[in-house]
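Lab meeting, item 3. Inverse folding demo.
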């Protein structure tokens, strides 16, 4: 079957393209935003990508068109497919149709930590020899790919709360109809589709209320919004936490050479010295969720411990991109204030004694709006300096709804943090270079390509070192 994906370079859509190709389909796609790592992954799979959205991309006529959730109803390519009578579906619809119906579906959901936790569960099962299928919204180093079609009975999928498509306005995880699910946390995000936190809560209520009676919900009860949601669950609920009594509780969390080490109090007794190769309390919590789900699905503690200990992380999550002129350059996807805060706290612990110079790009539909203006002021407390890039797509927002980078810089300076807003990527690079010195750690935070800032910064540091 010839399947064409519109907005193929989104993390989920790109992964779907890969698994469709692995299943033997002829896959093509189009996108207006092509950048690594997904563009590199697709190229490696031999999947052709058309630039932009044009009806001509539907020639020769595909058998099925998958429309990504980034596509609006007036998109010329999607419109041509629909008006031309080509069969079409959404990303979750295609995943369900081709892969989930005959497998045990395990979904990982929540505002934060989905990608890392999904990758952990997928690797634990893979390392244990269970040959699962998986779809992760990022590229895990152990797995080598964001997607795989395995021979085992489990399909492990990252469950996004973003809506399915312009013609199907429900969260994607609802269409997966998982047999088992992790609900890690619930906070406000995706301001372009959810007007407030109550709307986000209602979306997760659809997940909880739709769980099968013979399924299991693994719930992160440190989050009060999760505690509120799970009261209506029709299936057994297994809880995990750090700060509260729970079925699975992380204890004695400590850092060791860039790794987080902890014990777990479980229904079967204490399990000691679990290790994960990434620092931070939040990664202990991600690993705790993965441990609880793996135990519920009958893996033994030793197999889970071995999987977690050998897990190497996910690209764009505290990923070291290189070191030049004594400066370590780290790429991280964090953009929500909570994610920014916990990531920087983890990096502060990992790189104790070194300055953290943060380059932050407000790029998501939520971060470029003013909703988190106040919360961002305290999210960067672990940073030594913050350089704020221009708000991505600022011209599409009114002044009243737009995030104010200059105000954030002022607020950070009031908290004793060297901070500056910039008007262009060139200025962002120039200001960062003036602050960076040997021994520093540069942390680039963006959910997008950031104008190639990672390589530009490494090149500039390399040139400065060669021409002092």
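The presenter then showed the designed sequence:
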């Amino acid at each position: 079957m010839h399947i064409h994906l519109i907005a193929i370079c989104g993390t989920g859509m790109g992964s779907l393209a890969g698994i469709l190709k692995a299943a033997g389909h002829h896959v093509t796609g189009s996108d207006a935003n092509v950048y690594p790592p997904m563009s590199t992954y697709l190229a490696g799979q031999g999947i052709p990508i058309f630039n932009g959205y044009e009806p001509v991309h539907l020639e020769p006529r595909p058998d099925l068109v998958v429309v990504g959730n980034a596509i609006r109803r007036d998109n010329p390519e999607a419109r041509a497919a629909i008006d031309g009578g080509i069969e079409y579906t959404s990303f979750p619809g295609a995943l369900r149709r081709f892969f989930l119906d005959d497998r045990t579906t395990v979904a990982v959901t929540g505002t934060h930590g989905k990608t890392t936790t999904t990758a952990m569960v997928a690797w634990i099962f893979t390392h244990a020899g269970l040959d699962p299928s998986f779809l992760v919204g990022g590229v895990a180093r152990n797995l080598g790919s964001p997607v795989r079609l395995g021979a085992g009975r489990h399909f492990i999928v990252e469950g996004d709360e973003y809506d399915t498509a312009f013609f199907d306005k429900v969260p994607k995880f609802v269409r997966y109809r998982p047999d088992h699910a992790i609900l890690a946390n619930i906070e406000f995000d995706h301001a372009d589709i959810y007007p407030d936190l109550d709307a986000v809560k209602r979306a997760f209520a659809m997940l909880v209320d739709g769980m099968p009676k013979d399924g299991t919900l693994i719930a992160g009860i440190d989050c009060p919004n999760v505690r509120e949601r799970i009261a209506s669950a029709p299936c057994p609920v297994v809880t995990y936490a750090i700060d509260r009594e729970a079925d699975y509780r992380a204890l004695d969390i400590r850092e060791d050479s860039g790794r987080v080490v902890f014990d777990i109090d479980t229904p079967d007794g204490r399990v000691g010295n679990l290790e994960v190769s990434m620092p931070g309390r939040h990664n202990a919590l991600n690993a705790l969720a993965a441990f609880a789900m793996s135990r519920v699905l009958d893996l033994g503690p030793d197999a889970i411990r071995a999987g977690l200990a050998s897990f190497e992380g996910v690209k764009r999550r505290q990923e070291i991109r290189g070191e030049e002129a004594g400066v370590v350059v780290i790429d991280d996807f964090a953009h929500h204030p909570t994610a920014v805060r916990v990531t920087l706290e983890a990096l502060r612990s990992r790189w104790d004694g070194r300055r953290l110079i943060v380059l932050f790009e407000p790029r998501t539909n939520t971060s470029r709006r003013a909703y988190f203006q106040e919360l961002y002021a305290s999210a960067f407390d672990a940073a030594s300096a913050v350089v704020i890039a221009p708000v991505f797509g600022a011209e599409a927002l009114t002044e009243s709804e737009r995030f104010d980078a200059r105000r954030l810089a002022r607020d950070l300076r009031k908290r004793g943090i060297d901070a500056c807003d910039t008007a262009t990527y060139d200025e962002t690079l120039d200001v960062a270079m003036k602050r960076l010195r040997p021994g520093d750690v540069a942390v680039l935070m963006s959910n997008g390509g950031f104008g190639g800032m990672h390589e530009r910064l490494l090149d500039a540091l390399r040139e400065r070192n060669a021409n002092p």
